[in-house]
Amino acid sequence: MAISTINLSSLDGNNGFRMDGAAAYDFSGRPVSNAGDVNGDGFADVLIAAPGAPNGSFSGSSYVVFGRASGFDDKLDLSSLDGSNGFRLDGELYSLFSYSVSSAGDVNGDGFDDVIAGAPGANSSYVVFGKAAGFDAAMDVSSLDGNNGFRLDGAAGDGSGASVSSAGDVNGDGFDDLIVDASSADPNGSYSGSSYVVFGKAVGFSATLDLSSLDSNSGFRLNGVAAYDSSGFPVSGAGDVNGDGFADLIVGAEGADPNGNYSGSSYVVFGGNFNGAVTALGTAGADKLKGSKAVDRMVAGDGDDTLIGRGGADVFHAGAGDDTIEIRDVSFQLVDGGAGYDTLKLDRSHLDLDLSSVYGRISDIEAIDMKGNGHNTLTLNALDVLNLSSTSNTLTVDGNNNDTVVGLSNGWTDGGIDHGYHTFTHGAAVVLVGVHVATDFV
């Protein structure tokens, strides 16, 4: 039965739920965002700002609420978060912390998504790293020390932190990047505005980063065109707009006047090999990119491409098209199939690929080909299948008669054999296994 209207008052825990702010004038819910998977349990988390919350006047708070499979009540009081079901982030005095909030992606490449919250009253933004466990009920962002997160400082009067976002992997190095506004900056006249892109990395974060210190290795600045454009309010990651394997950016400039006063403009900025991190770069055609025995970072671009790794902590961005990514071991840093129908191929024997153990390191893969040199094992659960592709809940697996697929998480249903594939389902997750491959689903 088609549904045209849902009254939010009807949410009962089965069809959704309500989250209530902790106190009067917290303004909880202004704004809100997806948080990614902060604790790495396979469920998406949510981020709720409460810019009026007191930790001192105009300090503000944000709440991260963990996702889970079931057990939702019709409402959740945000004051009840205790570290096991989520946690609170508290800003500093007069900072307007959580004026803007967003998932930060996985900035440090540890497999856990991070969050970012802007505090324009302090001309700052705060990045808090995700982790598996050990969350306290509350965390003061003044305690960030480079190991648990860091602060981004804009120049006085720039208004930095009014808009923040994950940028995706703009430079193709395998780490998610950040974009932060400074819409009151004046590089090309008063309030022309700027935005800053900060590159992610594995280690070496200080407690604070001055945005004015960015160089070609750590990020770059986008300057507004003319006075009073207010470029940078807002900013966002744009996804891969042109299908070249690099994440792109979008920047608003509400004060621009190309067609009259305040008609406004928006700018899409394509990602690219800005700091030379990419070792193999494709074209708009069908490419075959081959790696070396060293660490490779491949970005294939458009076309039906083949990316061939030779082992190690490689990064694969396949871009648009129906692509094949070949790996010789499971120590890769990142596999990103991009748009299209993409296949991950195990190109050696006796490989044991456990999708849970590489969670967060594989995305947008619709098929796995185990037909290397034999005796390969693929281990998965239902959540692994659902998280593997952003466009499909079905994983197709091919292999030889000495390869094995192991399905964990009790409750798989054997749907029999059809058109050469053995079907297994678990809720919305579907796995199609070639008939020559041994299976062990529970």
TrEMBL record:
GO annotations of cellular component type: integrin complex
Record's keyword annotation contains Repeat: yes
BP GO annotations: cell adhesion
Domain of life: Bacteria
Alphabetized SMART domains for the sequence: Int_alpha
GO molecular function: calcium ion binding
Protein name in UniProt: FG-GAP repeat-containing protein
Lineage: Bacteria, Pseudomonadati, Pseudomonadota, Betaproteobacteria, Nitrosomonadales
